[in-house]
Amino acid sequence: MKRELSYRTYGKKLKEHEQRCIVCGRKFEVIHHIMSGNGVREMFKDYIPLLAPVCNECHNVIHGHTSYTEVNGIKYTQDNIHDRLYAGMLMLFGKSFLVVAEHFRGHNKRLSRWISIKFGI
Question: How much is the pTM?
């Protein structure tokens, strides 16, 4: 796959376009790397369909630093936040997210489980 932007440049572009958190809709603050562990993040760090724009509160829940965040009466927990994250990425990137996610799904058990449940593959 050919990379078009570095993740830092991508982050700057998101800020310029006032991108919102794909989980809760608050202001985007950080880029979450969907692939991680054992050097995998470094290998895929610039693949745009694997970089999720999220707010700090959702990012903390994704990584388990806090147990939940609440926005407009909706509680985002470890149990439901990844579903929102992956669904948001699918909406943001469409088929390109699925193609990349399917190709690398062995590196992310949650993503692999989500694809299996949502698409039966």
Answer: 0.71
